[in-house]
Structures are given as C-alpha cells and as structure tokens.
Design goal:
Blueprint lengths: L2 H29 L5 H5 L3 H43 L5 E6 L4 E4 L1 H6 L4 H4 L13 H14 L3 E8 L5 E12 L5 E9 L1 H17 L4 E6 L4 E4 L1 H7 L3 H4 L14 H14 L1 E9 L5 E12 L5 E10 L1 H46 L4 H21 L9 H16 L12
Antiparallel strand pairs: 1-2, 1-5, 3-4, 4-5, 6-7, 6-10, 8-9, 9-10
Helix pairs in contact: 1-3, 11-12, 12-13
Length: about 425
C-alpha cells in the first residue's frame, strides 16, 4: 500500500467518524427538552449576544482542534512512510519472531534474501531456512540469549527457497510485540561474499607458504614480501630482502645480458620460465627453476611481479649422476658385445685352421681368410678391454703381433714408446 492510499483511507475514516458524532449529538439533543419560543424571547439581548459569542468562540476552538487533528494525522502518515522506508527498504533482512521462533513479520530484504514471498514467510519457523548442519549454532544462539537476556549474534548458513546456500550473520534480541508478548527482533546480514573472500585469502596464504620460494615485487621490481621457503633457500630473511631487487641473487655464472634478456621477455610476454644460476647469501651458487609472472590490475596496468623459485641443484646433480651411470652401463654392454664377438671369431678361426690342415690344397686361401678374421678378432678384443671407443695404435700393433706369434709359433719382437 502506498502513502497516497493510506492518506485516502485515513480521510475516509475521519469523515465517517464525524458523521457518527453528528448523529449521536442529534440523538442526545432530541432526548432533552427543547426551549420554547417564549422562553427564548424572555432571554435578555445582552445574554443572547454573550451566548452567541461563546458559541462562535467554541466553533473556532473546534476548528482549531480539527486542524491540529488533521496535522497530527499528516505527521503520523509521514512517520509511517519513513518507517516503511527504514524497515522495508533496509539493506538487511528484518524479522520479528514469536517466542516459538515463528516469523510474525519480515521486510522486503528478508524475503529477497531467502527467495520467498513475504506472506509465505509469515508463520514459518526461521529454523526451516537454516542449513541442517548449522542448526546447533542457531539453537545455541537462542539458548544463550534466553539465559543472559542480551543481544547475540552468530554466523551460520541458510538455504534459499531455490536451494542455494548463503552465509548469514544472525543478530537477535528479545523484545515484546504490540500486546506485550515476548518476541524476537532478528537481523539477517548476507556475508557470503566476505566468507568467500576469507576462503580465498586462506587458500592464498597456504599457497604462499609452499615449498617453493615466492617473491612478491612491485612494478619497479623492488621486493615487497618473501615466504619462509625463500629464506631457507637463499639465506635472506624478509627484512634483508625487502626494498631490494632480485639482483641480490645474481650469480657470476651468468652475464648481465642474460638477466636483461629475462626481464625483456617478462615485459614482452608477461612471464618467463627457465633454469637459472643464483647465489645464496653465503656466496654459494645453486641452480633454480624460476617462473616470473607479471600481475596487472583491472585496467591492465602493471602492478606487481611474482617470482616462484625452486632449488633444482640436487636434481641437476642427480641428473648428471644418472647420465654417468647410463654411460658406464652402456660402455659395459659394448665391451661385453665386443668380447663375445671376439670369442665367436676365435671359434671360427679354429674351424678354418682345421679345414686348412685337412685340405692342404686350400691352405693359401684359408690362411688369407684366417688373417682377415684374425685382424677383426684383434680389434674386437681391444674394444672389449678398453673403456673409450678409440683404439690406440700401439695397442693394435701389440695385439696383432701377439696373435701372429701364436699363429706362426715364431717370436716377434716389437718396441713401442709408452706415449703411443
């Protein structure tokens, strides 16, 4: 109902009240004896003038009282409009509950908050809209308020009419309704956004204190904040690093042009990622996996840099050890293959020698084949003994001489320098 509708209703009520009063006065007048004309003529003129004057003054008083009454009703209407603005249009939900927790009255914000019609809320238990897991919180609020008689507030979750869940701060106090019965005044404030922000901050705080060293810098690359992992990794505490740039971690293993290139890449792509040599406070160089990310505000203006540092020194050492182990294992397999090839060739040589002995007519051809196989066998024998892939000339000559000596049963003398 609008203010105009209420003023029209009040005017109609006042008009009906005036008509009823007029009828009642006429009934009273008819019940009394009416003076005759003779009696009225006997009244002295001076007395008649005084009575008329008194009646005139009384009429003016009645008109003034009527105007005061009209102004009072106007002010009352204004106050009711102001109450409507303050109560129904308030940015928080207002509810009046009876002593059993049933809703007697709710404003527009409460209805909007719970996604329900105002008339649907009346007569409903407020607990019906509270998430089941938080009923105990609401019960404790009621019990505590009844025990101490003072206003209480709790944060709990409520369920909207469409099933959505929201966080609400419930503030309640005990009062009395229009007939003096105990009642509750409840204020419902939506704190969902604040709770979500708190959760994001909590997660961000956990992420910040991760195992990686994190550095937060301003747009001028000056360090604003570092986490505990950064201090453990570099030896610099936050007080020592704050206000400085990350150049305090620069290592001589990289030229300055390298670091300039890193920041040029960050400016171009808003990020850089790679391995970099850095220097601890103790002067020790270490290898780190670094990711630098540029942070921009809603307008796209650069506001911060965030750098994530991971010490990969142990990983690099383990990788180098792995490569050495793989190389040693590969060399061992190669030597084993050469050794087996040599053994197989030695068997072939034995077969060729026996065939040459039993078939003298093929002796020249067999000795030529034996010589070639013997040379290949010698080379594989050498590859099976040494670690490196190259065969030294002195080793090759000595091995061939030994094999020829065994083949011909004739001593062969050979002198080689130790530096061959």
């Amino acid at each position: 109902m609008t203010s105009t509708d209420r003023r029209g209703g009040i005017a109609t009520a006042l008009n009906r009240t005036g008509q009823l009063r007029r009828r009642r006065a006429e009934d009273i007048a008819r019940g009394k004896a009416t003076p005759s004309l003779a009696e009225l003529s006997a009244i002295p003129p001076e007395e008649m003038q005084r009575v008329i004057y008194e009646l005139y003054v009384h009429q003016i008083e009645l008109e003034m009282q009527n105007e005061d009454l009209r102004l009072a009703h106007v002010e009352l209407d204004r106050e009711r409009s102001r109450y409507f603005d303050l109560y129904d249009l308030a940015p928080v939900g207002y509810c009046t509950l009876d002593e059993d927790g049933l809703i007697l009255q709710a404003n527009l914000c409460a209805a909007s908050l719970l996604r329900a019609q105002r008339d649907e809320l009346v007569g409903q238990a407020l607990s019906r809209f509270i998430l089941e897991e938080d009923h105990d919180i609401y019960h404790v609020l009621r019990q505590h308020m009844l025990a101490v008689g003072e206003a209480q507030s709790r944060e709990l979750r409520m369920v909207k009419g469409d099933g959505a869940v929201l966080w609400v701060n419930v503030a309640a106090t005990i009062t009395q309704d229009e007939i003096g019965a105990p009642a509750w005044r409840v204020v419902l404030s939506d704190i969902t956004e604040r709770k979500q922000t708190q959760e994001k901050l909590r997660i961000a705080a956990i992420a910040f204190e991760s195992h990686s060293g994190i550095v937060v810098m301003d747009a001028e690359r000056k360090i604003l904040r570092v986490n505990h992992a950064f201090t453990q990794m570099t030896g610099y505490c936050e007080q020592e690093a704050k206000g400085k740039t990350t150049s305090l971690l620069s290592s001589d293993l990289h030229p300055m042009a390298f670091y300039d290139g890193v920041w040029l890449e960050v400016q171009r792509r808003d990020m850089w990622e790679g391995e970099i040599w850095q220097r601890r406070k103790s002067g020790e160089d270490y290898s780190a996996r670094v990711t630098i990310t540029a942070v921009r505000d809603e307008a796209g203006k650069l506001s911060h840099y965030v750098a994530d540092h991971t010490d990969v020194t142990n990983h690099r050492l383990m990788e180098q050890q792995r490569l050495r182990n793989e190389s040693a294992h590969r060399d061992m397999l190669v030597r084993e293959v050469h050794h087996r090839i040599k053994n197989n060739l030695q068997g072939i040589l034995g077969i060729l020698r026996r065939y040459a002995n039993t078939h003298p007519e093929t002796a020249d051809a067999m000795h030529h084949a034996i010589s070639q196989v013997q040379t290949i066998s010698v080379i594989h024998g050498l590859q099976g003994r040494v670690v490196t892939a190259a065969v030294l000339l002195c080793e090759l000559i000595g091995a061939i001489a030994d094999e020829v000596q065994n083949l011909w049963q004739t001593p062969i003398a050979h002198e080689l320098s130790l530096e061959c």
